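Lab meeting, item 3. Inverse folding demo.
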């Protein structure tokens, strides 16, 4: 079920009204049932995968809390191995088998069979959220949850189970236990966030997609200028698509009295790559920081090991996004950029007095890395970048996709987003009347300017 569909609007209204009409002690049942329905709308049978990992992690949490010594670590390892095993099988089996088959074919060896199934939607997100639970119980930061239904709801809470934010148990589980009385301020603020997210998705992201998707799909048929425009447009398409989803998720949850973490903090205003990753997909970047980078030694070790840790984290982060070499390369690029940033700091190299220049360099480096993320293959990405930097064929002939006037319109919308989003976010602190007025304007803008083709959110595939 897509947030940008009429079906979701009906679903949201029914779930919310019923939630507040029910007594607190059975609200969790209603939310869990609604979350199951929400997920099963995509492919019903895959709910069995989630239920399997929920049972394993629920039991593991209790066993970890009761155990002592090395037994605690054993239960944690079994829980993590189960989650990673499920993720690896469904997301990476065909990728590994395909690459092994290429190697085996070159050596005239046997071929592994490829499995015919669709990747369970949101698998990477709810798997990481489940893993954070057992890790936090092991670390003593979260008591094991005895209420099976509430633990299942923690994993399956419908606003964020498909594409995040990836929450921590100590933030969400206490909120699921408490009594959430209806508050008009939560309703109005939640609707404001939902409208803002929908605006980003249907007015900006999906309109940019009308140009970006055909150009990247047929890169060899487009000029360097058209590829360059598509590169910059994709940077804002993926930002508005993903941050738009996060805004809708945050707003939907807030209407129910649940506060989710902020997932984006104006990432394209970052002055360096390190700052970018403190602003982009915050729930994932902090997950990797707390559960992988710091356990590896983080920056507490010598410089060479720190660089290796950064490469490991970002290559795994790349593969987290998809079982494809292009994502690995994208992660590797960001790892190398962060190492370069560390070198600048190590040798005290500063670009003083040039804040705009630092922003411009960072933004363009991020956009160029996005080419590997969006292109169909690494080869296509290299072709696109080579054509852009060759300086040839800077002509525009893609009028069948988007006219020059529409290009300028999209560019102005992007500029308005960069300049105005920070001020728009402050509207959450306005009075209910002020927020309702802004929400109404956003909804009208969506109605008159939006692209309602129910395009899937980009991060659903991860």
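The presenter then showed the designed sequence:
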């Amino acid at each position: 079920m897509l947030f940008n569909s009429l079906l979701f609007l009906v679903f949201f209204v029914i779930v919310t009204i019923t939630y507040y009409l029910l007594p607190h002690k059975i609200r969790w049942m209603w939310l869990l049932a609604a979350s199951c329905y929400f997920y099963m709308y995509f492919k019903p049978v895959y709910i069995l995968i989630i239920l399997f990992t929920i049972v394993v992690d629920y039991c593991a949490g209790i066993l970890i809390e009761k155990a002592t010594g090395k037994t605690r670590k054993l239960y944690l390892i079994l829980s993590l191995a189960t989650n990673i095993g499920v993720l690896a099988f469904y997301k990476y089996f065909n990728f590994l088998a395909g690459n092994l088959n290429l190697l085996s074919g070159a050596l005239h060896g046997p071929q592994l069979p490829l499995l015919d199934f669709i990747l369970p939607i949101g698998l990477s997100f709810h798997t990481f959220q489940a893993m954070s639970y057992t890790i936090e119980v092991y670390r003593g930061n979260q008591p094991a949850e005895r209420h099976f239904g509430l633990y299942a709801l923690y994993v399956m809470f419908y606003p964020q189970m498909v594409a995040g934010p990836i929450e921590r148990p100590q933030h969400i589980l206490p909120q699921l236990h408490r009594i959430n009385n209806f508050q008009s301020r939560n309703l109005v603020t939640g609707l404001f966030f939902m409208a803002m997210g929908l605006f980003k998705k249907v007015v900006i992201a999906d309109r940019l997609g009308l140009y970006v998707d055909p150009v990247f799909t047929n890169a060899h048929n487009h000029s360097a200028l058209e590829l360059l425009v598509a590169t910059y447009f994709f940077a804002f398409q993926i930002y508005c698509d993903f941050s738009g989803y996060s805004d809708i998720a945050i707003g939907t949850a807030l209407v129910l009295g649940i506060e989710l973490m902020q997932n984006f903090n104006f990432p394209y205003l970052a002055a360096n790559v390190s700052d970018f990753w403190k602003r982009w997909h915050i729930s994932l970047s902090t997950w990797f920081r707390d559960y992988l980078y710091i356990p590896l030694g983080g920056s507490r070790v010598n410089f060479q090991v720190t660089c290796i840790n950064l490469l490991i984290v970002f290559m795994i982060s790349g593969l987290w996004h998809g079982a494809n070499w292009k994502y690995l390369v994208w992660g590797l690029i960001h790892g190398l950029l962060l190492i370069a940033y560390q070198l600048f700091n190590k040798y005290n190299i500063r670009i003083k007095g040039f804040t705009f220049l630092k922003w411009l360099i960072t933004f363009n480096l991020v956009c160029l890395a996005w080419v590997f993320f969006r292109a169909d293959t690494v080869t296509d990405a290299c072709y696109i970048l080579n054509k852009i930097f060759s300086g040839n064929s800077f002509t525009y002939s893609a009028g069948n996709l988007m006219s020059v006037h529409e290009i300028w319109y999209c560019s102005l919308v992007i500029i308005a987003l960069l300049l105005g989003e920070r001020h728009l976010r402050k509207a959450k602190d306005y009075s209910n009347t002020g927020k309702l007025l802004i929400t109404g304007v956003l909804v009208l803008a969506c109605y008159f300017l939006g692209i309602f083709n129910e395009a899937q959110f980009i991060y659903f595939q991860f």
